[in-house]
Amino acid sequence: xxxxxxxxxxxxxxxxxxxxxxxxxxxxxxxxxxxxxxxxxxxxxxxxxxxxxxxxxxxxxxxxxxxxxxxxxxxxxxxxxxx
Length: 83
Fold this sequence. Notes:
3 helices, elongated
């Protein structure tokens, strides 16, 4: 496996973990939310991040992979800084 794939996958996983945690927090903050809603948000988010990480690691070309990494980094900055 090429080095750029390892770096891109690691960067995406870091951003993806943050986004899953933000999604869980938003699910928890909804009115009338239950524990199952938070767990569902965690499961769906984790599965999506895992699938995209595998695609970055093995399938996608470099331009697309780095584009996804950049988009996830922008999303993390936007979501965490937005008040």
